[in-house]
Amino acid sequence: MRIVVIGAGAMGGLIGTRLAVTGHHVTLYDTWDEHVAAIERSGILITEYDDSILRFRIPATTTPPALDAVDLVLVFVKSYHTASALRPFAARLPADTFVLSLQNGLGNLDLIRAALPGHERIILGTTAHGAALLGPGRLRHTGKGATMIGDPAQPGNRRFDLTPISRALTRAGFETTVAENIHTAIWDKLIVNVAINALTALTGLRNGELLDDPELQPVIAQLVDESVNVMRAAGVPVGTHDHLAYARKVMRDTATNYSSMLQDVRNCRRTEIDSINGAVTRLGAELGVATPLNRLLTVLVHNRERAARREQPPTTEEESPDG
């Protein structure tokens, strides 16, 4: 396949490079000049779990690439950059090109549809893999887990054959299944992020350290309960999945990771709080579901963002582990 990755940070760089290693024609597109220059000069360098090193030469650009004959566009930008990142491609995106968002949070589908009006082949996905961007052209693969993709328009009634995409991702090292209802998978991942990201951003704790504080346990449980109530009210199938147990499992599995939201605060960057806890709060208000704790954490993270920008200059190093 011919693939363009929009947002070649930690996860975009990891998945894009792995796809290129397995024989696909991949171009990385990112607006960070220093990062792209390093990739063009020396290739991208990935440190794996066992500390083995993969260095791979892969095309990278800061100019929106041509999409003629491109089979797949992977979207990895922060949620709040989605519209501006995709808008340059609206007039020249082939009708048969798939656009796959593997972003965090809620609302990305609406943002993509607004940026690419009339485009039908928009699909969503979620992954439990994680990566840290250590510096220009350098990243570490920090976590692994299931990856799911699916058609958001017709849950249970597939319009497209997504098998070639799932097979490509699986062959690249990201075990991928095609979900019957991708909205359920998106919410499952969202609730994990609701339970982890804001709390770590406010406390400075690693993911696993949240489990060590007994006073935080009822807070985590309430965040999850509020989110599940909104999920149910929105008509998304909840099933028998124990969301609190799963969130705690992710905390254990990524125990040494600093969440992406904590890293954003530390580096004076805007967080994705509005597409995580903030999204639960907004949807809850629309549906008449109370979400007082999610609302409080959204306000506090916004306050922490402003304080961080006042306290220190931003750095160029970005870490984006899953969760």
Task: Give an overview of the whole structure.
With 323 residues, the protein is α/β, with parallel strands linked by helices. It has 2 domains: 2-180, 3-Layer(aba) Sandwich (Rossmann fold); 184-311, N-(1-d-carboxylethyl)-l-norvaline Dehydrogenase, domain 2. Helix content is 41%, strand content 16%. It contains 11 helices and 12 strands. The chain has helices at 10-21, 33-42, 82-86, 108-115, 163-171, 182-203, 217-233, 243-253, 260-266, 277-287, 292-311, and strands at residues 2-6, 25-29, 44-47, 53-56, 60-61, 72-75, 98-101, 122-127, 130-135, 138-143, 147-150, 176-178. Strands 5-2-1-6-7-8-11-12 form an 8-stranded mixed beta sheet, with helices on both faces. Strands 4-3-10-9 form a 4-stranded mixed beta sheet. A hairpin with a 2-residue loop joins strand 9 (130-135) and strand 10 (138-143). It is globular. The two termini are 29 Å apart. 48% of the residues are buried.
